[in-house]
Design goal:
Helix content is 42%, strand content 13%. The protein is an alpha/beta fold. Strand 1 (63-68), helix 3 (79-100) and strand 2 (104-109) form a beta-alpha-beta unit. InterPro entries: Aldolase_TIM (IPR013785), DAHP_synth_2 (IPR002480). Belongs to the class-II DAHP synthase family.
């Protein structure tokens, strides 16, 4: 891929999962023109900062926590929903930081995660077949021809909702809401209310003791402002390349191109064709980027994708998200990790334990068992250790709301519980309790891994 790149060279490549059935191509061009004139949602300096932090992850000095909605929606856009998911990520990060002994880089699937590739372009109900729902920035969920027709005006609405979401996230991150003591107090409430709270109490008590010690020696939010605020970044799948192109701007300080719709963007499992439009677009932007890596990908093909997306082998540039399924990860991940290690590629290896563990319950609901999600994360950590690779992070579909979409967890949600609060617009998400429980259980695994590393260093 030595040809000259511009933000629109992707248009000469085959494109997967980008709507080609807009009724009015002129309206699409007009909306994309309006988007080009709107302010950036994020800034190049922020994206560079995240790339630096992800460089620490690739070197084994930090851990990535990335999470949020499967697909954001216009209907459920409220300050409370944004706050609750933000708070959940902070709670999980504190638990993972304390147990893992490394700083946690916090990235939300927020402020732009609308569009989703679908396994089928159409949906049939009874005798009626209509285009599939593809995300609120493309079409509507209602099963009518009018709702399912793609509407470019939705791109503008998604931009403005993303802007409002970012505004709120910046206020939460820097305005005192993210104070470390607040976060821990919320977590103590979870421990008290969880059926498995006794298991997590020891870690929670140790965090309390550490905070008390810090206060005793004068390390408080008044003397150290970093205890009062957090760095928080946004991400989404770069699926609708017309939107991403419109948000791609030249950074005045470096002359480089950045996609200003998010700090980090990733390429999905269904759109990672080496000669395709999505690889072509993503290779040219300077943001940190991600690539979903599934069970069908061979080591040589992975290395070719890495060379296309990160030819300079820049630390923090590329995150690989394994998404295999708890029953496939042991057979597929080791040889991929071995390939990147042997080739000396600087990448972040993270795990997406959601997409490979989806099933349909007997009552028709799409769901994911908590035990399989946890099992894939644990296997990821074990395999990374065995391959001499840093287990760099987790990428989760989750919400701060008390939904009933994934089976199991401390509350032992059953198939019969799914109908109670099944609100997702796409795939099932961990609820707040399940996600925080996952953080505690993963922290136990990270702590054990850290102790093994120490023993190996001494021995």
């Amino acid at each position: 891929m030595t040809h000259r790149w511009t933000p629109n060279t992707w248009r000469s490549k085959p494109a997967q999962h980008i709507p080609a059935d807009y009724p009015d191509a002129g309206a699409v061009a007009r909306v994309e023109g309006e988007l080009r004139a709107l302010p950036p949602l994020v800034f190049a300096g922020e994206a560079r900062r995240l790339k630096g932090l992800l460089g620490d992850v690739s070197a084994g000095r930090a851990f990535l926590l990335q999470g949020g909605d499967c697909a954001e929606s216009f209907k459920e856009f409220t300050a409370d929903n944004i706050r609750d998911t933000f708070r959940l990520i902070l709670q999980m990060a504190v638990v993972l930081t304390f147990a893992g002994g490394k700083p946690v880089v916090k990235v939300g699937r927020m402020a732009g995660q609308f569009a989703k590739p679908r396994s089928s372009p159409v949906e049939t109900q009874g005798d009626v077949t209509l285009p599939s729902y593809r995300g609120d920035n493309i079409n509507g969920m209602g099963f009518t021809a009018e709702e399912r027709a793609p509407d470019p005006e939705r791109l503008l609405k998604a931009y403005h909702q993303s802007s409002a979401t970012l505004n709120l996230l910046r206020a939460f991150a820097g305005g005192g809401y993210a104070d470390l003591h607040n976060i821990h107090r919320w977590t103590l409430g979870f421990v008290e209310g969880s059926p498995n709270g006794g298991r997590y109490r020891e870690l929670a008590d140790k965090i309390s003791e550490s905070l008390d010690f810090m206060s005793a020696i004068g390390v408080t939010a008044d003397t150290h402002s970093e205890l009062h605020r957090v760095e928080f970044f946004t991400s989404h799948e770069a699926l609708l390349l017309g939107f991403e192109e419109a948000m791609t701007r030249v950074d005045s300080t470096s002359g480089d191109w950045y996609d200003t719709s998010a700090h980090l963007l990733w390429i999905g499992e269904r759109t990672r064709q080496l000669d395709g439009a999505h690889i072509e677009y993503m290779r040219g932007i300077k943001n940190p980027i991600g690539l979903k890596v599934g069970p069908t990908l061979e080591p040589d093909d992975l290395l070719r994708l890495i060379d296309a997306l990160n030819p300079g082998d820049e630390a923090g540039r590329l995150t690989l998200y394994g998404r295999f399924g708890s029953d496939k990860i042991a057979a597929r991940l080791p040889k991929l990790m071995e390939a990147t290690r042997r080739a000396g590629r600087q990448v972040v290896w993270a795990i997406d334990p959601m997409h490979g563990n989806t099933l349909t319950a007997a009552n028709g609901y799409k769901t994911r068992p908590f035990d399989r999600i946890l099992g894939e994360v644990k296997s990821f950590i074990e395999i990374a250790q065995a391959e001499g690779v840093h287990p760099g992070g987790v990428h989760l579909e989750m919400t701060g709301q008390n939904v009933t979409e994934c089976l199991g967890g401390a509350r032992a949600l059953s198939e019969g519980d799914l109908a109670d609060r099944y609100h997702t617009h796409c795939d099932p998400r961990l609820n707040a309790e399940q996600a925080l429980e996952l953080a505690f259980l993963v922290s136990e695994k990270l702590k054990a891994a850290r102790q093994s590393e120490r023993q190996a260093a001494v021995g």
